[in-house]
DNA sequence: CGGTATCCGTGACGATACTG
DNA sequence: CAGTATCGTCACGGATACCG
């Protein structure tokens, strides 16, 4: 039992993981969700199930590769479900799971903060970059 | 006045920026704050002003280069203030500004979510990776 | 102490072409 | 339509050394 890490012992004690530690699994999860593509994708899925092509059109700034990769990661992590409807042509829908919806308020808040405080940040940058 | 971008006109109309568009400045800001280093740094500064060495010790998983770079970005964006106290040796303190504190609840929520839902995500991954 | 400067490998990311 | 595969690039980020 002495081989347990600090994070493991902390978890068993009822306390949470500590994302500051590189070895902590919560840290890896944080790396995963604190990601620009994830924040955009989850936000886009807020309105309900969406087809791949709809998502791709909405997130015009995301390449096909990154969108697919992000959706795969989210699916693996249990945040989105992927439903394939066999037809010609094939139809694939993505939808947030219950777990995914629990993350939605946070992702929405981040996107909202960025859009809301854009002007203040821009002003701060201008001041910072101001020549001597 | 006809040279304004769609984002600028939207802002003046009272509506927010649209972070889905690559050209939108809010998108760049989102890219900046939806970052693992930023989320860790802002969270670490939640308790009040901290010295560089304290931060570095706390965020053991962050290299000196990334920590400095992240703090510089946050300073430029007006989220963090940097105070140098001339002495031997030099002392540098970092502190969240009012703008930075407005972001704190969101960053805290992200880190909290990661630590809280770690087990569920881990279970989802195991299920996803389960061989045929 | 609190950085900066430099090197350098890895992998993120976009563009393109192809498939079921 | 919804991908997968492959390639090339370039910036992220770690390691190391040096500076005020």
UniProtKB/TrEMBL annotation, chains A, B:
<keyword id="KW-0238">DNA-binding</keyword>
<dbReference type="InterPro" id="IPR036388">
    <property type="entry name" value="WH-like_DNA-bd_sf"/>
</dbReference>
<dbReference type="InterPro" id="IPR002577">
    <property type="entry name" value="HTH_HxlR"/>
</dbReference>
<keyword id="KW-0805">Transcription regulation</keyword>
<keyword id="KW-0804">Transcription</keyword>
<dbReference type="Pfam" id="PF01638">
    <property type="entry name" value="HxlR"/>
</dbReference>
<feature type="domain" description="HTH hxlR-type">
    <location>
        <begin position="24"/>
        <end position="122"/>
    </location>
</feature>
<dbReference type="InterPro" id="IPR036390">
    <property type="entry name" value="WH_DNA-bd_sf"/>
</dbReference>
<protein>
    <submittedName>
        <fullName>Helix-turn-helix domain-containing protein</fullName>
    </submittedName>
</protein>
């Amino acid at each position: 039992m002495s081989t347990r890490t600090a994070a493991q012992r902390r978890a068993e004690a009822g306390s949470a993981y500590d994302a500051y530690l590189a070895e902590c699994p919560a840290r890896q999860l944080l790396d995963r969700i604190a990601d620009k593509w994830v924040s955009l994708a989850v936000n886009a899925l807020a309105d309900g199930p969406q087809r791949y092509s709809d998502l791709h059109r909405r997130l015009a700034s995301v390449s096909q590769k990154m969108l697919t990769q992000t959706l795969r990661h989210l699916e693996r992590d249990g945040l989105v479900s992927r439903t394939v409807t066999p037809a010609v042509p094939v139809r694939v829908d993505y939808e947030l799971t219950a777990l995914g919806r629990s993350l939605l308020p946070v992702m929405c808040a981040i996107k909202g903060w960025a859009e809301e405080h854009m002007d203040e940040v821009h002003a701060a940058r201008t001041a910072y970059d101001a020549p001597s």
